[in-house]
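Researcher: We're teaching a course module on how sequence relates to structure. For the next exercise, students receive a sequence and then see the predicted structure as C-alpha cells, so they can try to spot secondary structure elements on their own. Here is the exercise chain.
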Amino acid sequence: MPSVRDILTNKGAQVQTVGPQMSVLDAALLMNKQKIGCLVVMDNDQVVGMFSERDILRRVVAARRDPAATSVGDVMTTEIVCCRPHTDLMEARGVMKNRRIRHLPVLDDAEKLCGMISIGDLNAYDMHEHESTIYIMEQYIYGRT
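Model: And here is the predicted structure for the students to work with:
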C-alpha cells in the first residue's frame, strides 16, 4: 500500500512555518509569495496550529479584523490533525475528507515535523498511478511489450 512517505520522497520535506506572533498580514504575504495555501505554526519546535486561507477568510476578513494588527496565534486553527510517514494514503485521504481539511502535517516518531501533504499531493499521486496503469494496459492490449 502506498504511504505518505511515498509522496514525501518525491515532494521533499520542506514545510513553510511561522511563529504565532507573526502578523496575519505578513503570513498572508508569505503564503502569496510561496504560492501556498497553508502554514504550519510552530512554537519551540512544536506544532501549535495551522494557518490557512480559510482562517484568513473566516477569522480575519469576515470578522473585519486588521490583518496588520492581528497575530497568527489569535486566528490560527488549533485543532491539529497530523499523520505519520507510514500512514496509508487512503487513510490520509479519508481523514482529510471527513474533517474537511486540505493539509496534514507529517510528524516523525519523535513528534517532530518532517513534512506536509495536501489534498493536491494526494490527487497528483493518484493521477500518476492511473496514468501508469493506463500506459501498461495500452501496451498489453496493443501487444507492444
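Model: If you want an answer key for the exercise: The first strand starts at residue 17 and ends at 18. The longest helix spans residues 119-141.
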